[in-house]
Structures are given as structure tokens and as C-alpha cells.
Design a protein that fits this description.
2 domains; 4-stranded mixed beta sheet; alpha+beta
């Protein structure tokens, strides 16, 4: 049997190995400490009970490793899936995204990297990882126009 890890590197605190992190998530889903953890994000209201248990388990692991609760869970798997289902709207802010010399777009909110679609020019208008809308600045065009960033 193959298990699929549902998450990304932004969910794993410190230098915790991903497999150990996922094993702890599975273990902590039913741990009574997750229910008593004083951690809340309004987006958690749109989650299923199973998703909520995983988010709370991940927050408990974050607390154990860093002595702090996570401050941004917008990139966490369960939140992303809720956005895809339409249970959560996209983030209401706009962030500046830049397109580097290799044509890779970098989200201004979560720093995720995205390639253009197969037509070679459209990146979308919303980051698929954090949900923020972006306004893209093409560094290649700025440099060719003689504008440099300091």
C-alpha cells in the first residue's frame, strides 16, 4: 500500500523530515491535545472534520517544534482543497508577482514558482498555492526598457 503525503514544505516546521512530520500528523489527528490547542484561523470553519483534525495536528506539531503557532496557513493542503472546492474564496489582497529572466513567475505572497501555460504566456491570475491574486511584473521587460531594481 502506498500512502500519499498531503502537504508541502511550507507546512513542515524547522528541519523536521517530511516522513516523520507526516507520521506525527497521522498520530496527532486523534490526540486530545489537538482539540484543546488554542489555535484558530477563520478558514478552518470551511473544513471537513477530517481536514480540521489534520490542520490542528499540524499546528500542534508546529508548536512542539518552534514554540510558536503558525501565523499563515493559506498554503496548507486542507485550505487549498477548500479553495478548490469553492468553500473558501481567494485571498482578498493583491500581491506583486515577478517574472524572472527564465520566464518563471514568483508569487509575491508565498514565493511559489509557476511556469506559463502550454501557450507560453499565461500564468493565471491567482496563485494556486496561497490563493492570492497577483499583478505580474516582467523583470525581463523592465531590464530591456532600462529600468533596474536596486
Amino acid at each position: 500500500m502506498v500512502a500519499v503525503v498531503k502537504g508541502n514544505r511550507r507546512e513542515i516546521p524547522g528541519n523536521l523530515p517530511p516522513l516523520l512530520w507526516w507520521e506525527k500528523v497521522e498520530e496527532y489527528r486523534t490526540d486530545p491535545r489537538t482539540r484543546s490547542l488554542r489555535f484558530f484561523d477563520p478558514r478552518m470553519e470551511a473544513l471537513s472534520p477530517d481536514e480540521l483534525a489534520r490542520v490542528r495536528a499540524k499546528a500542534l506539531i508546529w508548536w512542539e517544534v518552534t514554540d510558536e503557532l503558525p501565523d499563515d496557513i493559506s498554503t496548507w493542503w486542507e485550505i487549498r482543497m477548500a479553495r478548490r472546492r469553492g468553500d473558501l474564496p481567494s485571498v482578498e489582497s493583491q500581491d506583486v508577482a515577478t517574472i524572472d529572466e527564465d520566464g518563471v513567475l514568483h508569487c509575491g505572497h508565498c514565493e511559489a514558482r509557476w511556469s506559463a501555460d502550454s501557450d507560453g504566456g499565461f500564468y493565471g491570475t491567482v496563485c494556486k498555492l496561497c490563493g492570492s491574486e497577483w499583478v505580474a511584473i516582467d523583470d525581463r521587460r523592465m531590464e530591456s526598457a532600462g529600468v533596474m531594481y536596486g
